[in-house]
Fold each of these.
Amino acid sequence: MTRLSFSQNWTLINAIIALWVLFSLTQAEAAVLRPHVSVTGDTVTLGDLFDDAGTASDIVIAAAPRPGAPTAISVSRISQVARRNGIAWRNTQGLTRIVVSRSGIPLAPEITRAALADAIAEEAPTVAAKGLIEVIFTSGADRLMVTNDETPSLAVEQVAFDTRSGRFRAVVRVPAEGEDAQRFRVNGRAYPALDIPVLTHRMSPGDKITEADVDWMRIPATRVSQNIIDDTSHLIGFTPRRSLRPGEPVRSSDVEPPRLVEKGSIVSVTYQLANMSLSTRGRALEDGALGEIIKIVNPRSHRTIEVEVTGTNRAQVAPIGPIRVSSLK
């Protein structure tokens, strides 16, 4: 067996120490603390905070925050837990705290609006009486989220509504039920609104408005005057008096029943009595829609009579008193 000299032994010891130091430095440099962390579960672990926590990855350091409500963990606390669990980490970045957030499912806007609309309607019934409550958020609504395993829901705990300005401030709880529900402040405006029928494309005089040409639009109730059409029965089957643009409120004066009789056209006219029916033809002296009273002239006798339009180029005499049969000839 070959014996090593003292100098050789010392050289070997120094080599071992150098390897150990190099190994330790490699481990220390491998564990890097993330300045911003996002988690999906209920807890924050060393594996979430460090990019290489090794066997200490599952060590829990804190409870996870609610989605939409980030929290901060001090670096001194992280350092203590890390060193106790074998992570040789040095704060070379000079960090003081780590911001931790939790991913979640944003609440659908319609859920939030519906809950606030109900609360405001209860708070201000006179406003609700004017129409549907429309809600617009100015702050806070974008933070409302639930965890991946929770049912999206919201409960309004407090609401303050100014009827003059339409502005509101509210405190909501997300989710609606649960011991760890988070409270948020949301602000916005609310106003009564009405749904009215509008055209889906430009239409011109002579065009007949059909159901396919109509859609619904919600507008502030203050914009709906008495002559604004709010029922499709006063729109479908009618024709524009002028060119109408899509997506705009339609006034009753903007449309009219379709012209079934045009001025100058030949009209078939009937006169119904108790025991007989007479018919003749005449020339229309004016346009006429269904149910309108127009004047026609008999081309033979040149007599003028008034008739009620019943269809396309059709009309009937609806006499108030006796009528001379000769006027129809």
Amino acid sequence: MSMTIRGTRRSLRSVARQGVLALAALAGLAAHAPATLAAADFPAKPIEFWIPFPPGGPTDGSLRTLVAAAGKELNQRVVPINKPGAGATLAAQVMSQTAAPNGYTLSMVASNIFRMPHLQKTPYDPLKDFTYIIGLTNYRYGLVVRADAPWKTLEEFLAHAKANPGKVTYGAVGIGSSGHISMEKLGKATGAKFTFVPYKGGSEEMMALLGGDIDAVLDPGWGQYAVAGKVRPLAIVGDARFPRFKDVPTLKERGYDITASSLVGIVGPKGMDPAVVKALHDAFYKASQDPAYLRSLEAIDLEQVHLSSEAYAKFAAEQYERERAVVRQLDIRF
């Protein structure tokens, strides 16, 4: 009889343990259920898309075309919101600190997001504070002056700058931007001293150039002004000449091993649900094939690329280290 009782007790304890484990498993499922359901219903409301430039510039216009197409793919509005500042990193900075990781707040970023932490203290870590969704395009850079400027060639421009240290002014979008860094490299390579004037966006710097406030611009987005005869490109700051401006040489062709490119992509806050990330990636990838968007890229000489979420995250880690090396080489800090 005693053996039967002890066996029954052991059996009851085993059943109790199984019950506890089952309840724990159910509790775990319940904890994940809201996120899973939210991902399945995504998007259930409009998505904010933060643009780190003022309205009216070339990138702003292209991105607005993209988000309109993405909204159709998602069957939900994607609302563009301009948040310029901090060398075109303010939008991503604020998003990383304030937005919930639910996919309803996104930001466009370029490669300067990886450079700024090496130049100054930043409130974000690009390797920890973002979810990388998709890489979309590459900025292509050029050095331009007004059409009525006295310099017809790069050599004339550099000779004037060397003869007049600090008197030649140039603009680029923000301190530490690819345009700023490239002009610093050019100055170091040639012995010329330029005065840098930072702007919040491409439209502002081009208006400053056309209005005579600065002498030159080193940035993307000037193609329409060149076609209209308002600016004169002196050099392409890349590995190859632009398809639309085949007569304009690269800096490399002129003996300066200086190139600039900047990957444009979309990020969200850290910790996003992978299912939401995939939904956003797929929608923006399809939107990037939209004919109106492709025409907008061609109009501002942007190169279309595609990086998956995984490839974009890998690129981010590698670019962060590349930017560290560039900043050390130039010995620049702000």
Amino acid sequence: MTTGVVGQYEKAAAEAREALHYEGNDVTPYANLAQDYLALNRLDEAKATLAEALRKLDDPFLHLYTYYLAYLQNDEAAMKQQFGWMSGKPGAEDVVFSAQSDTEAFHGRLQKAREFSRRAVDSADRNNARETAAVWQVNAALREAEFGNPAQARQAADAALHLAPGRDVQVLAALALAQAGEIPQVQRLLDKLNSDFPLNTILQNYWLPTIRAELEVRRGNAAKAIEGLQAASAYELGQAPPLMPASMYPVYVRGQVYLKVGQGQQAAAEFQKIVDHPGVVLNFPLGALAHLGLGRAYALAGDKVKARRAYQDFLALWRDADADIPILKQANADYKQLE
């Protein structure tokens, strides 16, 4: 297992630099090093690494990480440049379409996000990459669930499972369906994943505890949910396939559980972890929703000043958001109560 998978990005960067001494014409160490520098928020070094790599290698993943770098630097022109390079290239196009869907979702532009997800699914399917197409589909399901659209989440998750019910799709479908309240179906998926992949470290220590926590909350067992998430602590900053970028999902779910049981300070600490790691979550929508979670946590803890600031940060990120998204409607209503 690589050190980046468990979130040890300083060590991972050192290993990638060492690998470049022996594999200077290989995409993998360059891509790994760029990813590690992004996670560490060392953007100048990430930029230099990618520029050096692209002078001699022209690989879609190098362009994808250049896209992510541009995202962190709020450089829309550079993002469009990378989007243009990857568009029209089988095996690259679907990746950047899905990345763009996350960018749109990060800012609450759900209709645009849905369109880019649809294009990602169609592109991968045309390239006979059905499992990848299903991952893009179930990524859209997760987004719908987080934004408060359970019916759309169920529909997208079921469509992904129908398209290609592999391990990665089952994992994300279970998480989306758990949030949508489909407890019996999720339990069946959990049991199958646990039985089929007992030695998969990331599955057993990152995804399954996160999904179980969602189920336990809905069963009224918040304390058990928090206890179960302890298994993910060593992995929560890491890269957890199939999602890319890292989502920090265990941290986000732990924060949500603390909110449900009225522990505002503990919830704030979890959401702050996500806010403090923009180079880890990149454009994944939980990065924006963490600001909302932080606002709710501070409101619960009685700190209206910090709560208003966090709500304002979220609403600024979502200033161009679709007005009919349930989580946004609730956020606006809650923010008015703080004024």
Amino acid sequence: MANACGVDFGTSNSTVGWSRPGQSALLHLEDGKPTLPSVVFFNAEEDAVHFGRAALANYLAGHEGRLMRSLKSLLGTSLMDGQTEVHGRALPFRTLLAQFIGELKRRAEQAAGREFTQAIMGRPVFFVDDNPEADRVAQQTLADIAYAAGFKEIAFQYEPIAAAFDYESQIDREELVLIADIGGGTSDFSLVRLSPERAKKVERRDDILATGGVHIGGTDFDKYLSLACVMPLLGMGSRLKNNSEVPSSYYFNLATWHTINLAYTQRVWHQLKDVYRDVLERDKLDRLLKLIEHRAGHWLALKVEEGKIALSDAASTDLHLDRLSPIHTLRL
């Protein structure tokens, strides 16, 4: 399949691979990197669409517009057939996903110097737990979106099998292998049967002997790291004059990527002004109000993510929170 590529459409990041003997399969999609963050930013000032790191950079630079992230999480939900509003116009979610996958295809073709008409797309063992029909619909939806993005032929491969291919090419006998796939939105664990003989089969569903997972992934680690270490700087856990705590919903919204924009509504702003009059630690609420005023919630979420990544290789790290007022350095 000379015109075939492999597409990993991920919750946090996406990649495209092309089999080239003696070379890395992964194609460079942005700034010399093989990953494209699954992010879209609709810039209202320029009436332009940005993807990946450029989308995040445009948003954090303060341009007016709409940021969309974790697009894959729409699959298998009732939202998939819905729409959102961008620049005053209705945008179906199916069209949004087709735009992103179309951009993946375009960048991969540019990097490879050839057209890709066929794609093998990774899929979880279950898009939807305990609901075979909903799971079937989710796969068909993704196939339809890939066709809309310009692919002519689509096939699917279970992600645990795809992850096992490299290891399977190195073994000379049958083995049972436990595969852990910790993604942005979920963590899946699969027991898979591998062997040189089984590697020749096209259909590998029967080689997945058991699978299980939890809807806990990298974005959840970000959320709880933020709640435990960063949000107290903004007043989470602080007391009011009646000895009750400042409502935690503001902080949960700021710590969860897809709800950050809820913190920017006029209703929340007026509520926080009322809270401010009764809070005992006003300096912390000052930080929160200035963060919201400058719409810096996504910046803060990215700083927390940077801290999480740094802690993968070190016992501690410093977060330089230079957009808080006053500037603060937090040791994690």
